[in-house]
Amino acid sequence: MTADRQAGARRGEPKRVALVVAAGRGYRLGGELPKQYLTLGGRPILRHCLAVFAAHPDIAAVRAVIHPDDQPLYDQAARGLDLLDPVPGGAERQDSVRLGLESLADLAPDQVLIHDAARPFLTPDVVDRVIAALDEQPGAIPAVAQADTLKRVGADGLITGTVDRSGLWRAQTPQGFRFPDLLAAHRAAAGQTLTDDAAVLEAAGGAVRIVPGAERNVKITTVEDLRRAERRFQGPGEVRVGSGFDVHAVGPGDHVTLGGIRIPYEHGLVGHSDADVGLHAVTDAIYGAIAAGDIGRHFPPTDERWKGAPSDVFLRHAGALVEALGGRILHLDLTLICERPKVGPRRAAITSRIAEILGLDGGRVAVKATTTEQLGFTGRGEGIAAQATATVSLPG
Ligand SMILES: Nc1ccn([C@@H]2O[C@H](COP(=O)(O)OP(=O)(O)OP(=O)(O)O)[C@@H](O)[C@H]2O)c(=O)n1
Ligand SMILES: C[C@](O)(CO)[C@H](O)COP(=O)(O)O
Q1: What is the DSSP letter of 212?
Q2: What is the pLDDT of residue 12?
Q3: Distance between CA 248 and CA 246 in Å, rounded?
Q4: What is the pLDDT of residue 248?
Q5: pTM (2 d.p.)
Q6: 328 CB neighbour count, 10 Å cutoff
Q7: Which domains are delineated in the chain?
């Protein structure tokens, strides 16, 4: 559970769960793999939305509903994300949602957001709008106003009429509801065929509000949808660079933690967490690249939960935020500044550890060390400093 999620739970906010339906077979798209497991922008389609929910501060837990045959594909797609175990779906989308809701009954969330795995371009702002509307309504869905003229067409291909498009909206997901209402509505609707969860709540007499969706939040249904989605990931996207800097004072102890590894030493480093200046600088560099604040905002030093905490927790959080934006860490460059302990012999271990924490290729992580020629606080051995840059690409 992330820092923000734990904080939310502590503030007594409604317990909100995201349920991602991913048990479909993708017949209209065809091909050997169900569409949610095809690779888009270097990651399985399903992973895109799972990452958004997993990193969202107002979502307490995330569960996917999958086809039982897809377990190995799911395991690969969800690797490293903090999720509830998946549950098996049913023959139709509606069955999969109902089974997913039943599986959450023991957890008794206050609210649930249902999302199609086949909508990989979900962004946190759409989730925010649905959640905000749920404060006032039992149901809220993102939707986009219908812009084209609508024709009713007969079996012979001839137009039989023009449909008045005023008041018509295209429904998207995630669709948010008060959990007990939606579970009851789905149980009551078993046997009817309804294509979204808003329709299920409407059938039970529940009010559902529209909030602005996003044109980019499309569902991948056909080969043409997939091609269009792939084109969005072509080209460099937007490249951003962030920088990070950190210092910790030397104090009593018999080791320091630097760049995620423990190094025996005649002193320690003083800090609220494990005082790993290296990981702190890299973490702040990543936050900087995506303009997501700094380590102190996400993990306040006044918070007892982070006392003695291993700093890989902070770094993983920054990596998850990049992923939730559909981005990728292209390169990290860390410089450790101290006379002692000697970093050179540990450079490879630090490089591998940072790469491992973030799931990166080691070639994307540079670790360097320097002294300040015995000048200043690092030169006198009073503290260790670190500076880092992070280069991140975000989809265009
Ligand atoms: N039995 C089903 C059918 C659909 N879905 C999910 O519902 C979402 C929207 O459905 P759709 O786009 O229609 O997906 P498929 O059913 O896979 O596509 P098709 O109808 O072309 O087979 C998808 O994320 C899909 O995996 C599901 O969980 N269980
Ligand atoms: C729920 C939905 O995404 C709303 O647009 C859509 O109805 C699901 O897809 P399907 O093709 O109707 O199963």
Answers
A1: E
A2: 60
A3: 7
A4: 97
A5: 0.85
A6: 18
A7: 3-232 (3.90.550.10), 238-394 (3.30.1330.50)
Whole-angstrom Cα distance, residue 22 to residue 46? 7
The candidate with the shortest Cα–Cα distance to 7, out of 258, 275, 300, is: 300
- What is the CB neighbour count within 10 angstroms for residue 374? 10
Residues with CB under 6 A from ligand 2: 93, 116, 171-173, 195-196, 219
Q: Which residues of the chain have pLDDT under 50?
A: 1, 6-7, 9-10
Which candidate, 303, 289, 191, 293, places its Cα nearest to that of 241?
289
Distances (CA, A) of 134 to 124, 131, 261, 312: 16, 5, 45, 34
**Per-residue model confidence (pLDDT) at position 3:** 53
For residues 390 and 331, is the Cβ–Cβ distance under 8 A? yes
Q: Does 371 appear as a known binding residue?
A: yes
102 CA distance to ligand 1 centroid (A)?
Answer: 19
Neighbouring-strand partners of residue 66:
22, 88
Beta-carbon contacts of residue 64 (< 8 Å; ≥ 6 apart): 19, 20, 21, 22, 46, 50, 74, 78, 83, 86, 117
ipTM value greater than 0.85? yes
Question: Which residue of 27, 93, 96 sits with most ligand 1 atoms within 8 Å of its CB, as the best mutation to test the pocket?
Answer: 93
pLDDT score recorded for residue 10: 47
Question: Which residues are CB-neighbours of 259 under 8 A, at least 6 positions away?
Answer: 276, 278, 279, 334, 336, 346, 349, 350, 351, 353, 354, 367
Residue matched to tokens 């970093």: 343
At 297 the pLDDT is 93
The pLDDT assigned to 11 comes to 54
Task: Give the residue ranges of DSSP H helices in the chain.
Answer: 3-10, 45-55, 71-77, 93-104, 124-134, 179-189, 197-203, 223-232, 277-289, 295-298, 312-324, 347-358, 376-379
pLDDT number for residue 283? 98
